[in-house]
Design goal:
Elements lengths: L16 H11 L1
Length: 28
């Protein structure tokens, strides 16, 4: 799932820093 941008920001969950970190870990 391409929910995380190249800069590590979440495209879907904008502003959710915790979710962003989680998505980066799960998506990597």
């Amino acid at each position: 799932m391409d929910l995380v941008g190249l800069d590590g920001t979440s495209i879907v969950l904008v502003g959710e820093c915790k979710w962003t970190e989680t998505w980066v870990k799960l998506g990597d």
